[in-house]
Amino acid sequence: MKILLVSDEESKFLWDYYQPGKLADIDLIISCGDLAPEYLSFLVTMSTAPVLYIHGNHDGKYQSRPPEGCECIEDRVVKVGNLRILGLGGSIRYSDGDHQYTEEEMAARIRKLRWKLHRMGGVDLVVTHSPIRGLGDDSKSHVHRGFEAFYKLLDRYKPRYWAYGHVHMSYGANIPRLQQHGDTTLINAWERYILDVE
């Protein structure tokens, strides 16, 4: 399965300079948040792949203009083919904006998913907007700090993949695209990334 991961910045390659066939070999598109709803609607229209999404901390506009033809997987565990996917959007709380959570609030969201994860027999791909604390986040910036609460998911379920956004790779040269933590490959989905899943 070939998965297109997108986040935070609309890809000019896919939108401004789109040509028919660019998405022909994509089986699934997943947004890690902070993208224009029109962009996600465009992707689902120009491909035969379903588009799944979660909310970023700048996606309050989705309440009045949700991405058309796309499926929100916020606080859900869904199965696409043999792939079990969990969605948890939002960032650390830094203002009164939408889709921001304290560590305690995120931990409570994770606890509510235990039964769903048990029923599914675990999870293969976790999709979040924020990274895990200390793994791809910006520890110097409160706004771009990751969640400590995510370690419970990471350590207990050991997903094969963890895709996130929020920390733009354009912020600096030392921001990694890929990291490995035990059995889990962590992917910064900023702009676009192709994930091949066997």
Characterize the structure shown.
The chain has 198 residues and is an alpha/beta fold. The chain has one domain (2-196): Purple Acid Phosphatase, chain A, domain 2, CATH 3.60.21. Helix content is 18%, strand content 27%. It is built from four helices and 13 strands. The chain has helices at residues 37-46, 103-112, 114-120, 150-157; strands spanning 2-7, 28-31, 51-53, 71-72, 76-80, 83-88, 91-92, 100-101, 125-128, 161-164, 178-181, 184-188, 191-196. α4 (150-157) links the parallel β9 (125-128) and β10 (161-164). The N and C termini lie close together (6 Å). The relative contact order is 0.19.
What are the SSEs and their pairings?
Layout: E1 2-7, E2 28-31, H1 37-46, E3 51-53, E4 71-72, E5 76-80, E6 83-88, E7 91-92, E8 100-101, H2 103-112, H3 114-120, E9 125-128, H4 150-157, E10 161-164, E11 178-181, E12 184-188, E13 191-196
Parallel strand pairs: 1-2, 2-3, 3-4, 6-9, 7-8, 9-10, 10-12
Antiparallel strand pairs: 1-13, 5-6, 11-12
